[in-house]
Amino acid sequence: MTALDRVRELAEAVARRRSLGIWDVEMKGSPGGSVVRVFVHGDAVDLDTVAEISEEISRGLDLTDPLPGRYTLEVSSPGLERTLRTPEHFARSVGERIVVKTKEVLAGNGHRLEGTVAAVSDESFALEMDGTEVDIPFAQVRSARTVFEWK
């Protein structure tokens, strides 16, 4: 189990006790130490909840010490425009508008596609663009995020 897996396991346990979920966990290294980002989602995510979760994860990390060297822990919500990385992220975003950048040009539409997530399978997702669905394999996704639409 990697250090990232251990951090994710701890964060999921902390969030689950509050009936919340973990959207994502990121770890980026730098010469001065690592930055660990935990994104919490759910109906009751406010600043007080984020602070409590941050404290509890920090205590757990201090006790289990899964990270070598120095690190900074950042806990927040994923925001209105969320990064989509996993099939689960896409499945939770069915019906939402997203922007996808692909590794290769797909269906003559270029590398940057914008539309609504229509369906998700194990290997791909369907993006509805102006009445046409384009099947996009997850292996072709360079980056993706939801798009917040002001109404």
Descriptive notes:
By secondary structure, this protein is α+β, with helices and mostly antiparallel strands. It is 25% helix and 38% strand. The chain has three helices and eight strands; from the N terminus they run H-E-E-H-E-H-E-E-E-E-E. The protein has helices at 3-16, 47-64, 87-92, and strands spanning 21-30, 33-41, 71-76, 97-102, 112-120, 124-129, 132-137, 141-146. A five-stranded antiparallel beta sheet has the order 7-6-5-4-8. Strands 1-2-3 form a three-stranded mixed beta sheet. The longest helix is centred in the middle third of the chain and has 18 residues, at 47-64. It starts with a helix and ends in a 5-residue tail after the last strand. The relative contact order is 0.14. The mean pLDDT is 90.
For the biggest sheet, the summary is: 5 strands, antiparallel
Rg over C-alpha atoms, rounded to the nearest angstrom = 18 Å
Mean pLDDT over the residues: 90
Structural class: alpha+beta
State the total count of DSSP E strands.
8
Percent in strands: 35-45%
State the end-to-end CA separation.
44 Å
Biggest sheet strand order reads: 7-6-5-4-8
Total count of helical runs of at least 4 residues:
3
Which word captures the global form? elongated
Element order: H for helix, E for strand: HEEHEHEEEEE
Approximately how much helix is present in the residues? 25-40%
Low-confidence stretches: none
Which terms would index this structure?
151 residues; alpha+beta; three-stranded mixed beta sheet; 3 helices; 8 strands; elongated
